[in-house]
Amino acid sequence: MPTSKSSLINLSQYSKQQFENLCSRSLSLKLKNNKLESSENFTNKFVAALLFFEPSTRTRFSFEAACARSGVHPMVLTGAAGSSAEKGETLLDTVTNIAAMRPDFFVIRCGAELDLNHVAKQINIPILNAGWGILGHPTQALLDCVTLIEKWNTLEKKRILFIGDVKHSRVIKSHFELAQILNYDIGVCAPTDFLPETFKNSATEAFTYFNNLAQGLDWADAVITLRVQKERHHKILFDVNNYRLSYGLNSENLSKFKKEGWILHPGPINYGIEMEQHVLADPRSLILDQVQNGVFLREALIRNLLKD
Ligand code: NCD
């Protein structure tokens, strides 16, 4: 049985070899569209607990689809409504009690109040991080990279520009870890209010900073524009119109972006803020490819986990 050692909570210990295996398995699952040889099917042998304490559409559905495709029964909890969390039970107690029912693994989306590393050790069941506060979202970074590998074959020395709410993005946190492993360059284009304090105070070499979108687009091979996370803003006075004018993707600024460049967004999209609606249909947009690849990436992850 897999133990907490097979958890995926962050990517700092991930290796290039692990990524390459996961990526090729994801893409071969996609190619076969899950028409697997019977030896690879282990229908109904496993049970997973999917706990989504924060809202989710793509990540939750793709984990559910990935479970179904791998013969894993998903038990899904979404939000507090209908569970004992409504009666005041803590997240830790919820996880500990469900762990007592011995699912084969957990998929958890939650805020930073739950220490996923600590919980995984305590329950000795693997946890797949499906978005943890602003700390990380490893499967999103992995699926972004699989989507770009499909186009480029390699990420070595590629320049990826992240636009927008870097401060509150768990997606970019996982990309900072993965970029070290896969050797791509990160650029950041954001108003200073959207930069974490640590970025403002240190002369870090981990990324190139652009305060001007045109310069950022000129530098980039691909852009990942991030959702403005209004629900996480406390002290930020955010002016939608100014933001849209300076950082929103539209046909005018994208007309100056490389013809062979790629546009990504983890979703959900705030149209009219980080991008105009027609950008989704730009031939360089990989936004729905990301969603599709998310299923195969998570299926590959689950199949690897259960074969440990
Ligand atoms: C992201 C998330 O929830 O972290 N979306 C996702 O998982 N597809 C990004 C976001 O919410 O902005």
Can you walk me through this structure?
With 308 residues, this protein is of the alpha/beta class. 38% of the residues lie in helices and 15% in strands. Helix 5 (138-152) crosses helix 11. The structure holds N-carbamoyl-L-aspartate.
Keyword list:
binds N-carbamoyl-L-aspartate, 308 residues, single chain, alpha/beta, globular, five-stranded parallel β-sheet
Query: What series of H and E elements makes up the topology?
Result: HEHEHEHEHEHEHEHEHHEH
> Radius of gyration in whole Å, from Cα?
19 Å
| Low-pLDDT sequence parts | none
Large-scale geometry: globular
Cofactors, ions and other ligands in the entry = N-carbamoyl-L-aspartate
Q: Class by helix and strand content?
A: alpha/beta
Approximately how much beta-strand content do the residues carry?
5-15%
Helix content: 25-40%
Biggest sheet strand order reads 7-6-5-8-9
**Number of strand elements:** 9
Query: What is the mean predicted local confidence, pLDDT?
Result: 91
Largest sheet entry: 5 strands, parallel
